[in-house]
Amino acid sequence: MTGLRLALLSVFLLVAVACLRAAGADASPAAPAEPPITDSDRAHWAYRPLSSPAVPTVADPRWSRSPVDRFVKAALEQRRIEPVPRAGKATLLRRLSFDLTGLPPTPQALAAFENDESPDAYEKLVDRLLASPAYGERFAQHWLDLARFAETDGFEHDLLRPNAWRYRDWVIGALARDMPYDEFVRLQIAGDELVPGDPDAAVATGFLLCGPDMPDLNLPEERRHNVLNEMTATVGSALLGLQVGCAQCHDHKYDPISQHDFYRLRAFLDSADCFRDHPIPSVAELAARQAAEDALPVEDRQRAERLRELEELGASRFRDENPDVQPSLKDQLARLTDDERKEHAALVEAVKALPKLPEVPLARVMRDGQPRDSYLYVRGDFRQKGPVVSCGFPRVVAEGDSQPTAAANRPRAALAAWLTRPDHPLATRVIVNRIWQWHFGAGLVASASDFGVMGNRPTHPELLDWLAERFVADGWSMKKMHKLLVTSETYQLAASAFDADWPAERAQAARATWNAAAANDPEDELLWRRRRTRLSGEAIRDAMLAACDRLSPRHGGPGVRPPLPPEVTGTLLKDQWRVTENAEDHRRRSIYLFVRRNLRYPLFDVFDRPDANASCPRRHESTTATQSLVLFNSQFSLDCARYLAGALPRAQPTDDARRIEDAYLRVFGRRPSGEEAKIGAEFLTRQAERLRHEARETARLAQPAGCEPSTDPFATAALVDFCLALMNANEFVYVE
To answer: Cα(first)–Cα(last) distance of the chain, in Å?
Structure first.
């Protein structure tokens, strides 16, 4: 009887729901009225026009090497704070090398810099590093964090995106060439509209589609809604420094961004055909394909062309019914007539006999699809369409310009043009603040992707506006902005009260200055010292490979999958991490490692690499036991220590002092002090004796690769342990 009661109750509830629906009880709620933008809203510092500040006059101009320093010094003088002295040459070289290339300096680079006594020695060093191919790889990683780049979809199945790496390579190349930032942004928003038919411009639009996706959602409308909302939120946070994504369900709780604002901004993206793979061949790939086709007889070329026409015809008919679904070949054939299917089958058999043509790569990039109406979705629910909306910019920063007339035919091009206006108060401030953060560890506005009322206020507002205007005046050149910042005295300040290069009197004065400034401004908001920064997981891995001469110089191409520890591979499904066959690729720079959303490379994971599910403006810096465990116990660390030991000088087998100095130069970018050299020599002696006493024949006693046979394997093992200890020191992981 209990089962019967439950069945009757279920029927009753279904009938009740049907009655309520018939009565209109579940009718969609009306769209909310849009609140007006007030003068108080526009008074917020980030929404005001750029202020064109004059470079301030300071009491002691000798310290100021650039206008940047004068803004900083003026703020320090108001608080009667003296900055600490400039860091020594070795410290500056290591800082600058990691900042501009993500790699440590070589011993040869240190010797050359120390021996260069010319007045422009530092500036010449900056120019060399900015011209290095490693520069593009370094700053591309910063941008890929913002773009939430990955080579898989995420979610349960985490499906592959085979050609996603082309966007990563495009970013590296664009930055290395110093592509003007306004062009850099325009191509990523509307490359296909601005340069039709250019595969590189199409690849650039991968920025919009880098985010997570769930292709297996049952409702294509829900999938499209989720992707477009995420895309719109990323444009807002990464390029405007506004958390517009908070307004997809309701008006923003703090900032003057309405739900209408959000969906007007989304309307620029609504017509995009964002779930279809499009051809993106490089010039070389296109030429190879064309040459192979030209070599075919005319009849065979006609058959291949007719085959493509039939498949595209079926795909077009499928998309008329399912605009948001990528059709399979089965879907395409189902939309053909019987005669067309017979013709297709005959052509397939004929084409099979032809020589295999080079494949044209396909990728998910932006293309404008069929025009469609844009709506406000009530409460953010894709099933509850509200009023139709037109393309428009957030009203608080676009007074009188919220309805662009150019958006009808090329909506994303209109958005790109607005985002790169020279007088844009948000877009210009946001990018120069990010560049500042990449060099100083924190931006002038600490909340780099939130310039709203709940974000941080700028510590130096006049400097921020001056940099924004200077950036535009310099042709939107990021390299010029990098050079302006790193050649400033502010950038070259010491990060501690002691530097090995300082003479005794200077060191004593520096400690007094440090103590006085720390008492007045303990958080260093006024930039009286340099902040110590920790290396990212990628930079740590690259530095370890570089120190032992194992870093591969190969660039570009599909993401590399190096071997993973057994405890990680044991948790994976089949083919989720197919190890790359070429062993040299395993030693390439970290930016070229395959990026899977649901599995981060272990070293990167413990050192706080973002998961790529959302735009990341600034990485967290945790301190955990697993970081030490991975650095000390992983097979990768041990291999690097062995190769480093093998790379140290071998001319005099018993010359420990020379080996210790070379190890310090490779790992820390400086020479050891007398005390450190003494401690290192004592360690090597004691460790060799301990190992000899234990007399264990372990894998650690094997000769390092490239090392000549040694008469004392225990001394060799002690040297490996010494190298491993250096790469586990705080000084290796942090940059002064």
So the answer is: 77
**Residue 323 neighbours by CB under 8 Å, 6+ apart:** 273, 369, 370, 372
Nearest to 473 by CA among 529, 409, 422, 531: 422
Whole-number pLDDT of residue 106: 95
The span from the CA of 349 to the CA of 148, in Å, is 43
- Listed in sequence order, the residues at least 6 apart from 220 whose beta carbon sits closer than 8 Å to its beta carbon are 322, 324, 325
Alpha-carbon distance 240 to 434, whole Å? Answer: 12
3-state secondary structure of 153: coil
Question: What is the three-class DSSP state of 152?
Answer: strand
Helices H / strands E in the chain, number of each: 31, 6
Calculate Rg over the CA atoms of the chain: 30
Task: Mark 148-174 as b/e (b = at least 16 C-beta within 10 Å).
Answer: bbbbbbbbeebeebebbbbbbbbbbbb
Classify 542 as helix, strand or coil. Answer: helix
Rounded distance between C-alpha atoms, residue 477 and residue 484, angstroms: 11
Is the pTM for the entire model greater than 0.85?
yes
> What CA–CA distance (Å, rounded) separates 265 from 389?
10
**pLDDT per position as a tens digit, 253-277:** 999 999 999 999 999 999 888 888 8
| CA separation for the pair 561, 557 (Å, rounded) | 12
pLDDT single digits (tens) 25-81: 445 567 778 999 999 999 999 999 999 999 999 988 888 889 999 999 999 999 999
Contacts of 385 (CB under 8 A, 6+ apart): 28, 375, 376, 377, 378
Q: What is the pLDDT of residue 24?
A: 45
Q: How many angstroms separate the CA atoms of 508 and 456, rounded?
A: 36
Identity (one letter) of the amino acid at 258? Answer: S
Q: Which two tokens stand for residue 647?
A: 């790379």
